[in-house]
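Course exercise 7: structure representation. Students receive a sequence record and must write out the corresponding structure in token form. The form below is the worked example handed out in class, using Thiamine-monophosphate kinase (319 residues). Read each field label carefully; the graders check that inputs and outputs are placed in the correct fields and that the protein name is recorded exactly as given.

STUDENT ID: A-19
EXERCISE PROTEIN: Thiamine-monophosphate kinase
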Amino acid sequence: MPGEFDLIDRIRARAGRRPDVVLGIGDDAAVLRVPPGHDLVVTSDTLVAGVHFPAETSAADLGWKALAVNLSDLAAMAATPAWCTLALTLPDADAGFVDAFLDGFLELADELGVSLVGGDTTGGPLSITVTAHGLVPAGEALRRDGARAGDEVWVTGTLGDAAGALAQWRAGGPFSAKLRYRLDRPTPRVAAGQALRGLATAGIDLSDGLAADLGHVLRASGVGARIDLGRLPTSRTLADHFDEARRWPLQLSGGDDYELCFTAPASAAFAIEQALAACGVSATVVGQVQAGAGLAFMTPEGEDYAPAQAGFQHFQGVH
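STUDENT ANSWER:
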């Protein structure tokens, strides 16, 4: 069985290197060159076995998702991903697992031009922590505190697919391969986030569900909002497996969408549609920001709707 430093050498041999990496894996710390006129955006997320993914999830899918959830945070801030670190806690030094994990992790890293520049390996229950670094022109990061009354509320892509897959898994199957793919291989909306610079007023990525995550934006901005449930973007696959009454909880509180939710004035709608179309990303207006506080939901019949739960929170139950 390989030792810790054997695993590190294995990882280093496969990690790519951007020209702005002065010193990467192999020293006490990485040295990175931030270009003039840019702000550095940093985020970190942990995936824990039994909390964030089913035990049978493949190593390659874990690798992809561990990086994707971090790049989704950078996308929400309109940042361009640049570098990342990886801390792997493994039950044993399984070189085959590490190789398969890197297959997924580096597939996404290479696709988006991200260099793995350091991290750590330890023994223990399976846990994966990634810290991702991105760059944004100075002062142009998209934040949570810019929403204003009268803005429209948008979401990219479709909502509820990953939560639908998790619901099917918990029920013991059968399950949809298309929904499960959305759970295991989320697509971070990096290009869309960059396209929203100067157009959106506030943004967040949808990791814990629309109700919870939009709520963070509203509190930071000091406003409220109304969401029209009939406008929630729904994939054909989700509609085939879940009727409307069962879809709404998945779309509002299920989490794991990793789409972007953002606000923008109505006057920016055409420019937003053009900018996102150029990225190949769909987006839908699902509601409106209002003065005051709170988040309200309305059915297509005009009735009030209250989600059973706001969204996932650690220490208050499992996902």
